[in-house]
Amino acid sequence: MPELLEIDGLVVDAHTSQGTLTLLHDFSLSVSAGEVVGLVGESGSGKTTTIRSIVGLLDSNLSITAGTISVLGRTVRSPETENYRAVRGKHVGVVFQGVGSSLDPLARVGAQIAEVIRRHKPELGKAEVAALALETIGAMGFADPEQVLRSYPHELSGGMRQRVLIALAVVTQPELIIADECTSALDVTTQKSVIALLSRLVAERGVGMIFVTHDLMLAQEICDRICVMRSGRIVELGPTSRVMTTPAEQYTRDLLDAIPHW
Description:
- This protein is an alpha/beta fold.
- 37% of the residues lie in helices and 27% in strands.
- It has helices at 47-55, 99-102, 109-120, 126-138, 145-150, 158-170, 188-205, 216-222, 240-245, 250-257, and strands at residues 5-16, 19-31, 36-40, 62-71, 74-77, 92-95, 176-180, 208-213, 225-230, 233-239.
- A six-stranded mixed β-sheet has the order 6-7-8-3-9-10, sandwiched between helices.
- Strand 4 (62-71) and strand 5 form a beta hairpin.
- Helix 3 packs across helix 4 and helix 6 (158-170) runs parallel beside helix 7 (188-205).
C-alpha cells in the first residue's frame, strides 16, 4: 500500500528583483496512515513553504523547480505534472493558521461547511449535505452543534472557531490532514482540547497528519516523528522520543535548550 504522502527531492525557489533565492533544498518526507509527523523549526525555516507546496498554494513568485509530490500513490507535482485539484480538499485537508482570516465573517458556519461539501461531494442532496455538516460539527465536541451551525464566526470563541476550521478540513473525510500552527493563538486550556481533538481524529479515522509548529513540547505531545527544519533544509528526522531525548544535531539541542524550565 502506498504512503499517504511522499515528497522526494523537492526544491522551491523564490524569484525576486535581486535574483533567485532557494527556499526549500532537496526536501524529502513521507507520511503513513495513522501517523503524525511534526514539522518543527524557527520562523523562516521553511515549514509554511513546505505545506503550501504540498497543496499547490505557493505565492505567485515562488515555484517548484525540482522533485516530486505524491498523494495516495498519485503524482500531483513533478516537472511534467501538476494535478493538485484532484487531491486538495478531497484527499488532503488543511487547517490554516489564523482563525480570524480563514472564516468568512459574513456567512454562517453551516453555510460555509455546506459549501465545502457541495464542492467536493456534488452527488449529495440538500438533506444529505445538512446531515453531514451536523455530524461533522457534532464530532468536534460542541455542546450544541445545531447552534454552532447557525452562528456567525464572530459569535464564537477563538477555540470554537478553531474547531470549526478543523471541521471544514475533515468534512470531506480526507486521508491526510495538514495542521499549520493551528494552536499558536490559543490559550493553554483551549490548545489542549484542540490537540486532544486532532489526536482522536487520527486514532479513530486512521488519517495521517502533518503537524506544523515552532513548539517542540507541543510536538512531543502529538507527533510520532519529528522533522526539524532550518533554512529550508531538514536537519534532523526521527522518532519523537529519540529526537527529544538524544538529538543528533546541535541545532535541535539548541531548540531544546531554549525551552523555559520553571
